[in-house]
Design a protein that fits this description.
By secondary structure, the chain is an all-alpha fold. Helices cover about 70% and strands about 0% of the residues. Helix 1 runs parallel beside helix 4. The longest helix has 17 residues. It is globular and about 30 Å long. It starts with 12 loop residues before the first helix and ends with a helix.
């Protein structure tokens, strides 16, 4: 279990931005076909969409671009409705 007092940025911008930046280049269609990854990407995109700070725009745009390449059209419709 992660001790939040030792890792205060766990729920902050640095971790969310780093996660999006690390995932975007390696995300594949096969990964998006798995329910766990699909749900995780939905949650991550919703988190990124809720925060309109400038440091979130680049990771959000990069991940969205990659999702448009590898996610199903139905999934993207649900994403757009949920964000």
């Amino acid at each position: 279990m992660i001790d939040a007092t030792k890792h205060p940025q766990i729920h902050g911008h640095p971790t969310i931005c780093q996660t999006a930046a690390q995932i975007a280049p390696v995300l594949t269609m096969e990964m998006m076909a798995t329910p766990t990854i699909s749900l995780a990407m939905m949650s991550l995109m919703q988190t990124l969409a809720k925060d309109d700070s400038p440091d979130m725009s680049a990771p959000r745009a990069a991940l969205l671009k990659r999702l448009e390449e590898v996610a199903s059209k139905d999934w993207l419709v649900v994403l757009r409705e949920g964000t």
